[in-house]
Fold this protein.
Amino acid sequence: MLRTLGDHPEKYESRSRRSVIRALPGTGFTGSFLSFVYPAARFIIPPADTEQTAREVKAANAADLNPNSGLIFKFGTRPGLLLRTEKGEWRAFTAICTHLNCTVQFRDDTRQIWCACHNGLFDENGRVVGGPPPEPLEKYAVNIRGEDVMVSRQS
Amino acid sequence: MSLKEQLKPWFEERLGLEAIREFIAHKTVPVHSATIWYYFGGITLFLFVIQVLTGILRLLYYRPSPEEAFASVQFIMTKVEFGWLVRSIHSWSANLMVLTAMIHMFSVFFLRAYRRPRELTWLSGVALLFITLGFGFSGYLLPWNEVAFFATKVGTDIAGTVPVIGSFLVRFLRGGEEVGGATLTRFFGFHVAVLPGVTTLLLLFHLALVQKAGISSPNHDPQPR
């Protein structure tokens, strides 16, 4: 013997009561639907702190770098340039050239920061001394903690 | 005439929704299908939909590279609003889906629903169960933490014990000799592209067969061959 589901009597006492009762599950469904959609919508909106860039990173061991030399390190997702002047002073900059975003390097022969793409030249303070770069390199703060050379964003 | 009344026949003529409505309204279902053992296929399907939706959300932030995978999961958990919720739902729903799929399989088995003419429904269901386990195995590596790494190492090592093709199988799964970055991108590809595609096709086949044959009755003996 088969009975069908949804075999309801169709007689209701009054139209207005029927419409109220029909609306009730509707509000429930709408409410729960919104409670699903709201977190998903908030999830999709990118958070204010978008990049997982570090504020401070360990760039190198102090022993790694001789005076008058430089190296590229990872500052979050971007390259940074750590260099040591002839007097042994530590400096750090973004390694992204302000001209067309190539990665710059330290040249111990000229004691300058050099961009290989279009021959852009910066001095040991990141200032433009030649070539097409329109602006100086952003400078980072360097702190020596024991053996670790820590680089952080200034300000 | 209201806009709705004008649009209705236009869509009706092109979509034939009335026939579908009629079919749903008068579909007969055996009364015993309202017992709990007949629920679990539907619950598994529901959990699969949850997995697809939360999985798509997580794809917006997850990065499948050995350098970034772990950090991007931390990012979802701490920085993205409701990221903890979406990730936890994906994880819980994954575990529950394996459970409900298992219960579904045993229900079908003990209620003898696999019998003629439903053998293909049973076989496609077993394939779907194995794919669900494949989803779990590939998804477990993606957080790229220590436990994920070693679970995958042990898991893929087991594949190496298969006679003759074992060593090839390990190489195929790992994308190299050892578990590494190649394994991660490979498992990611399996998890978000290969398995969902295969699952969708098999699932449509499985559900179409359920629709075609109707719900089985354990007391009704199929005709002898």
Summary: The domain at 37-213 of chain B is CATH 1.20.810.10 (Cytochrome Bc1 Complex; Chain C). Chain B has one domain: 37-213. The mean pLDDT of chain B is 92.
